[in-house]
Design a protein that fits this description.
Layout: E1 2-7, E2 21-24, H1 25-28, H2 33-45, E3 52-57, H3 63-76, E4 81-89, H4 92-101, E5 106-110, E6 122-129, H5 137-147, E7 152-157, E8 167-171, E9 174-179, H6 183-192, H7 195-204, E10 209-212, H8 218-229, E11 237-238, H9 259-265, E12 273-277, E13 284-288, E14 291-293, H10 295-305, E15 318-322, H11 328-336, E16 339-343, H12 351-355, E17 361-364, E18 368-371, H13 379-393, H14 397-408, E19 410-421, H15 423-436, E20 444-445, E21 448-455, E22 458-459, E23 466-467, E24 472-476, E25 481-486, E26 494-504, H16 514-517, H17 519-529, H18 531-535, E27 542-543
Parallel strand pairs: 3-4, 3-5, 4-9, 10-11, 10-12, 15-16, 15-17
Antiparallel strand pairs: 1-7, 2-6, 5-6, 8-9, 12-13, 13-14, 17-18, 19-26, 19-27, 20-21, 21-24, 22-23, 24-25, 25-26
Bound molecules: 1-O-phosphono-alpha-D-glucopyranose and zinc ion.
The site of zinc ion has 8 residues, from loops.
């Protein structure tokens, strides 16, 4: 085995987006494409000499090949020890857990999250730092700069490693430990939730569950924890075997893509709780019998009830949500007298707040919820939290939600996505909205009068770093809101996301269909951005 220094040429497009570098598999198959990015990370890290790193992914197509390349490059770059999930698997939250537990310098997480997998679909890679969370922009910007100048990478000439057998071996000067991808994560969950209570709920039949793993990474985690440790009935976890192409599905837990689950939850005999997770296990969708919980409501409900759950019994230090996320959690924070931070989209912005112990819970409208237990959002954690709540309150999901609305009011919330728009058209739409900002305040649209219009700019309260252009916010005097932003995770064209929300205090108005309750705001949003005319689309691609 010897270290080879291979020359290479930079690629111009290795700028990490909302969550790492995400491209079509075909892009990653270009000669040296993966190698350039990985070497750029090592160059940015500086001296990895002797450090421990973590490596794993969601098992999608190209996961295994990428892992072999990264192992050889890590050995050639002086890494001391690499912890790899068995089979090359680690869910994103489990990777975060392992990085923290073993005090690693960081880790490579291979995933394109909820994007489809397969030879013609997506792949992704991101680097997480020592706190277990996605690298901050200061780091990813340096990786990008490095990727534009790179001219060589280091790699060991060595045969492929057996990733399927637990245990350790040497690759050059590096020790590779193939670890159980579930064990450390499962142990952490056991400390946070009342497993005894949930288990007796399942055993007595008071609690029933359908968890749809969507043929993605959470299958093995959910099987072991929910059906194994917690005694949920066999078969409660469906689509549990991870597949390289997710069975041809789109592993995104929402009502559109997890339609099998949605159908089961609105069927004649639905279980108490329905849930799904995404490709890499960091997202969650929560449903009850005949009931869907919006992620923004879910965050608020978890915050309001956290003190009932063992891991959070001392209360919350503060909470945070991404800017476009509905403001239900703000009301809970206000009632509790704790701070609620508003961050740009993307989990990386929660890292500083968590590390500085300013917040305990955080979440995003895009089916992401999490806490200070790791530095990623965590799908199965949210499901266990809900199971714990339902077992403890002995109420249905729908009753818990209705109670919450009665106490705090309801924030009707929806997101409309227009996908595959030509980039120049999407940029035109955003430029038009920018131009409108100055003239909007004070303007009325029917009964909606604009109180505030701006382009969201975030100053990190911990390190003072500034993130500009994080979305157009239009707030109305009746506290309704519209937000526009372009997706930073797509791999084809542009996606315009329109977020609308309306607050309703009156309990007699809490049972309207969401799209109906928001109809007027939606048409104001469409009028403002003119997406239908400009993109030539009759309707949104996805509504959540
Ligand atoms: C999307 C979500 C965002 C989430 C990210 C990664 O990013 O909107 O909340 O953090 O995926 O899961 P976007 O495509 O909007 O940039
Ligand atoms: Zn994900």
């Amino acid at each position: 085995m010897s270290v080879e220094i291979r020359s290479t040429k930079p690629f111009p497009d290795q700028k990490p987006g909302t969550s790492g570098l995400r491209k079509k598999v075909k892009a990653f198959l270009q000669e040296n494409y993966l190698e350039n990015f990985v070497q750029s990370v090592f160059d940015t890290l500086g001296d990895a000499g002797g450090a421990t790193l973590v490596l794993g992914g969601d098992g999608r197509y190209f996961n295994r090949q990428a892992i072999q390349v990264i192992l050889r490059m890590a050995a050639a770059n002086g890494v001391g020890r690499m912890l790899v999930g068995q089979g090359g698997l680690l869910s994103t939250p489990a990777a975060s857990c392992v990085i923290r537990k073993y005090k690693a310098l960081g880790g490579f997480v291979l995933s394109a999250s909820h994007n489809p997998g397969g030879p013609d679909e997506d792949f992704g890679i991101k680097f997480n730092v020592a706190n277990g969370g996605p690298a901050p922009e200061s780091f990813t910007n340096r990786v990008y700069e490095r990727s534009r100048a790179i001219d060589a990478y280091r790699i060991l000439t060595a045969p492929d490693l057996d990733l399927d057998t637990l245990g350790s071996c040497q690759v050059g000067g590096m020790t590779v430990e193939v670890i159980d991808p579930v064990a450390d994560y499962a142990e952490l969950m056991e400390h946070l939730f009342d497993f005894g209570l949930i288990r007796s709920g399942f055993r007595s039949g008071a609690l029933t569950l359908r968890f749809d793993a969507m043929h993605a990474i959470t299958g093995p985690y959910a099987k072991r924890i929910l059906e194994g440790t917690l005694s949920a009935a066999p078969g409660s976890v469906v689509n549990a075997v991870p597949l390289e192409d997710f069975g041809g599905g789109h592993p995104d837990p929402n009502l559109v893509h997890a339609h099998e689950l949605a159908a089961a939850m609105y069927s004649g005999r639905p279980p108490t709780l329905g849930a799904a997770s995404d490709g890499d296990g960091d997202r969650n969708m929560i449903m009850g019998a005949n009931c869907f919980v919006t992620p923004s409501d879910s965050l608020a409900i978890l915050a309001a009830n956290a003190h009932l759950v063992p891991g959070y019994k001392d209360g919350l230090r503060g909470v945070a949500r991404s800017m476009p996320t509905g403001r239900a959690v703000d009301r809970v924070a206000a009632a509790m007298g704790i701070e609620c931070y508003e961050t740009p989209t993307g989990w990386k912005f929660f890292g500083n707040l968590l590390d500085a112990r300013k917040i305990t819970l955080c979440g995003e409208e895009s089916f992401g919820t999490g806490s200070d237990h790791v530095r990623e959002k965590d799908g199965l954690w949210a499901v266990l939290f809900w199971l714990n709540l339902v077992a403890l309150r002995k109420q249905s999901v729908a009753a818990i939600v209705a109670d919450h609305w009665r106490r705090f009011g309801r924030d009707y919330y929806s997101r409309h996505d227009y996908e595959g728009i030509e980039v120049s058209v999407a940029e035109g739409i955003m430029a038009r909205l920018q131009d409108l900002l100055a003239e909007l305040p004070g303007r009325s649209f029917g009964e909606y009068r604009v109180a505030l219009a701006d382009d969201f700019r975030y100053v990190d309260p911990v390190d003072g770093s500034v993130s500009e252009h994080q979305g157009i916010r239009i707030g109305f005097e009746n506290s309704s809101r519209i937000v526009f932003r372009l997706s930073g995770t797509g791999t084809e064209g542009a996606t315009l996301r329109i977020y609308v929300e309306r607050y309703e205090r009156d309990p007699s108005q809490h049972d309207l269909p969401t799209q109906e309750a928001l109809a007027e705001l939606i048409s104001i949003a469409e009028e403002l951005c003119q997406v239908k005319q400009r993109a030539g689309m009759a309707q949104p691609s996805v509504i959540t």
